[in-house]
Amino acid sequence: MSETRTPLTIFSPAGVVARTTPVRLASKRLKALGFEVSVDESALLKHQRFAGDDETRLAALHRIADAAPSVALATRGGYGLTRLLDRIDWPRLAGSVERGTAWVGYSDCTALQLGALAHGAAGPASVGEGVSAGFWAGPLACDDFGQADGALGGDDVTQETFVEAVTGSLEAVGFRTEAGFDGLEVGGRLWGGNLSVLQALIGTPHFPRIRNGVLFLEDVNEHPYRVERTLQQLHMAGILDQQKAILLGHFSGWKKSPLDRGFNLKTVIAHLRSLTKTPILTGLPYGHVPVKVCLPVGRKVNLMVQGRDAFVMW
Question: Catalytic one among 70, 107, 132, 196?
């Protein structure tokens, strides 16, 4: 009897794929992990800094939604999805979720994930056990499966977590956080992603109005003062105070300045904690780093802290 393999489509909704090698390596690695891999017909197109022009990338989104593979995995982020949000047929994406598709990615994919949440296309907040369909903040094909500097093509923990997520067996993630939150236990709808992309959606129809949620955030190449400025906007807009908890992933890739004089991410977080009553936890393994968990955007979760061990369960 032949082995049943999970259909997975690799597609490019945003930035151009500069080289074909990572996509080829990702396909090979994903096949070894038990997926039936196909690469969308426009995934490797190039138009300026985009993977094809806007019409091409929009058509790819709708084509994949209509096909409803078990997994739709983006090649990379970059920039491009914001251009499409006003024209996406959200009911078509919702239909793919109803038929079992798990849409996976991070970075610029935050725009698609939050847009789906805002337009009711992300699926129900509460689902039964073993359900993988919906929008997952998780790895990218090129970054996390297509690297040539290792036999696995990326971090093995990241890949194992991805497989569990899209096959319905992932029910929780854990991480080590700072002291001071022992006994914290809250519940709410999980949402968030890349901080800069999220900020760009505020005031648009594509920004989800989530109250009593659990907000997770990360960013790359943004100096701590830029991170603070963006978080200040979220605070002044009332978004931070409306949450049950805020989970901070990695803020990587920035360079120190001689003007900092002790100003860093720790001082940013301390300042934010002085402004909002919402607990702000650090240490979430998520962001532009090799090791990242998969997080079900829009799903109701419970956050529990025991000592310094935090658990997000759904």
Answer: 107
185 is annotated as an active-site residue: no
Residues 158 and 183 in one domain: no
Alpha carbons 188 and 190: distance in angstroms, whole number:
6
Cβ count near 129 (within 10 Å):
8
For 122-174, the pLDDT digits (tens) are 999 999 888 999 999 999 999 999 998 777 789 999 999 999 999 999 999 99
Token pair listed for 15: 């930035």
Residue 142 shares a structural domain with residue 16: yes
Domain extent, residue 93, equals 6-166
First to last CA, the chain: 34
Which of the following is catalytic: 27, 119, 218, 250?
218
Catalytic site includes residue 107:
yes
| 193 lies in some domain | yes
Under DSSP, the state recorded for 73 is E
Are residues 134 and 213 located together in one domain of the fold? no
Residue 218 annotated as catalytic: yes
Claim: this prediction has a pTM higher than 0.85? yes
